[in-house]
Write a structure and sequence with these properties.
This protein is of the alpha+beta class and 395 residues long. The protein has helices spanning 4-9, 11-24, 29-36, 40-48, 54-68, 72-75, 86-92, 97-104, 108-115, 122-131, 136-140, 153-158, 191-200, 252-260, 266-270, 277-289, 294-301, 330-338, 375-394, and strands at residues 147-152, 167-178, 185-190, 205-209, 214-219, 223-230, 304-308, 313-316, 350-354, 360-364, 368-374. Helix 10 runs antiparallel to helix 14. The protein is elongated and about 70 Å long. The two termini are 15 Å apart.
Length: 395
Amino acid sequence: MIQNEALFLNQGVIGAKLEQIMTQRALAKYRLCQGAGISRPTLDKILSGTVTSKTNYEKHIGKILTYLGLSAEDLLGDRPNRLNRIRGLRNKLRMDIDFVAEETGISKQELTKIESGDEATPAQIKDIALSLSTSVAGIQGKEFFPVPVMMPEEILMAYKYDLPEYMSGYWGSVGIRIKGGDDCFWYPITNAARSDLKKVIHSEVIVIPCMNNRVLVLNMKNINEVILLDDACDSPGSDSWSSPINHEDVPQVVYDALYDLPICSDEQIDARQDVSPALQALTRQVIKELDWDEDTLLHLLYRTIIHFTDGRNIEKYVQYDFDANNISGLDELIFSVYMMAADQDQANKIIELEESGGEKSFINFENVSFFDIPLREIEPILREEYEQMCAMDDA
């Protein structure tokens, strides 16, 4: 049985479904407000999927369901795409459905159905994510880290966009300088990542999600300096700024698309149906403009880099699989530090890495400065661990 609490988590779908029901019943907004005993502004927020208070939402949606003679199952049921945030995010960014339809090439009627929970193709989901300046995980509610929105935080604040707490705009870059080294490694980050970093900067182990499909795990005992560089600042003149991974302007959904496209010729790319021709063209344009060769793409998408204290950098194709019995993998380390704030004694751990070929490595974290991990490779595993933890709490 679906509870009203579940409706709050899927309020974008609920808003779209309620509008469909109102149209079918020729029910005007003022009449629904009168019958359910709610205000017009409250109804507008429910329909747009932008209510911020869970308690208020559950109270008012309960009144609406009672008046309409519906249950939570009538609104959600087994809808194939019910876990989507398209409608809520679109309204938060003040984008009307006509704009998204024009940007994606999806008809307004079909978009309305998708927003209400009907099935969408993988290509459609990616195109919608691109139009909303975010990632597939961001609109499907499958993120573990805050979801980047490809807009500078200062723009979001200037125009008073009220983004949900699980999303954040681009802030600037973080630089990592390890002990015994002169180079500084730079990564683009969101405002949420910057804020979180400042809160935990005195911890032994720090996790930093970045905007270029990387997540960093820092052993602070082996880090000389962490630098925060606002986007408004000039690039550092004395540091190694040029890097194939410091590209903050790449739309997040391009990384999603790259996982569904072979690293090969255009003819083979065009044969794929999981990515629309428009997004394929954009992806090829990004690859060309940033001069990403095959080695760079493999690095961005699949390789985990281990920066050791002796200056060595080793790249591995690590296999990240959910395993409840694996208590020493990178996923467990990230989860315990990021979610549980359990950084004590983590720096002395032995980290087990299983490579795609089957071989296993055991890394003494004490000798590591930081791990540099493909975010989209490990985030689904972390999300699965999170959902399992929530299920255990609810049991």
